[in-house]
């Protein structure tokens, strides 16, 4: 049978099969949904907007994006002792940055330090507010900072030592000088409570690509609530990415980091590495190279109710390098350069649920060389490649997703190992280039999917010969919908056990 299939046959997949979602779209409904998503994008254009600003539009097919359970907001940790402001040689700070961030250190950063004779401001022995830091610096170290109304411009780098904290309170703004090569290294506690942290405009004469950044490393923690971050970061993920939290097994932080209800404008990204129990929720990311949120070696993270638009180089959310126990829920990911969510390199136990992904430069979700991933109740509309792409991955469940008008297949499964298994259950396909594409795939189990709006190609690639069987299972009069298994595994190898991790 040819890959193309008349729509009349496709209608059998919803008209007679019990238990199907039967939620595929006709042309008018597709046009209406496209207008609604465009309106959501328009309402969320400002960096000050949050998901609540589009809530009245999250109805019908988009209701699951609003119904995802909100993560509770943790209290901000406070140190009671008062810190002291000192200085340390810049070479000491660079040595600490190199030590604490390991291979994520950019060796060219020394070129950005216009005045190598200037030291770094050094907070130790307790907490300081930004006002206290500025007052002490003006008194003890003339030229280190400059007051500009409510904004404190720091020309020198800042170090928060492991026994110390810096608090940026509401209406306070810390601006790191781009021209002078300023940045912030935090191995204590950095709290941004309704305040602002940003890079100054302009360019650095020693290193043109440089932009100030904030690196939290080793024993450090970052807690931000209702904060604003702008123009921070350069050179991709890692310590210079904008905001980074870089954990270490030998020096775990005793304080949990979180970033909630904050805005990121033209920040290269939020980079999380080797950290635990992270919460990134209710934030607005606009612009920046991306990934807006990058995770490597993270154990336990809740990435929920964020809005991410307009990354210029990469995906919106990146989950890699053995990251595990990751929840990605209720996010709105629109118009980013890469995929909405990219999962790769031995990530496992990842749940991607109730997200809206539209007009992204690649696909909605890509999963590569990973295991135990659940992708459910998402809406993937008009992405430039596929809705969901699976490559060389095990034990995946793709269920109850709306895959609509993507330029490639709704779902693509390629390059699978012999004992890999993918379950595709209860999804609705409408107006994609094809429904499901297969290439070098192993076992794929189809059950109760709705292809009525998917014309003319239902199954593509090496799956195309299974179209008659798909129609036969859909036309069954049984009380329960039948499953169609493509390429049933005959390998004696044990499947991946997602409960034990083996």
Structure description:
With about 500 residues, this protein is mainly beta. Helices cover about 10% and strands about 35% of the residues. It has seven helices and 43 strands. The strands form three sheets. It has a 15-stranded mixed sheet with strand order 1-2-6-9-12-15-18-21-24-27-30-33-36-39-42, with helices on both faces. Strands 3-7-10-13-16-19-22-25-28-31-34-37-40-43 form a 14-stranded mixed sheet.
What keyword list fits this structure?
502 residues, mainly beta, 15-stranded mixed beta sheet, 7 helices, 43 strands, disordered N terminus
Give a brief outline of the structure.
The chain is built from seven helices and 43 strands.
Number of helices: 7
Mean pLDDT: 90
The general outline is elongated
What oligomeric state best describes the polypeptide chains here?
A: single chain
Q: Main β-sheet: number of strands, strand sense, barrel status?
A: 15 strands, mixed
Biggest sheet: strands side by side, in what order?
1-2-6-9-12-15-18-21-24-27-30-33-36-39-42
Query: Which residue ranges are poorly predicted, with pLDDT under 50 across at least 5 consecutive positions?
Result: 1-11, 15-22
Supply Rg: 25 Å
Helix content: 10-25%
Helix/strand/pairing category: mainly beta
Q: How many β-strands, per DSSP?
A: 43
Query: How much strand?
Result: 35-45%
**How widely separated are the two ends?**
40 Å
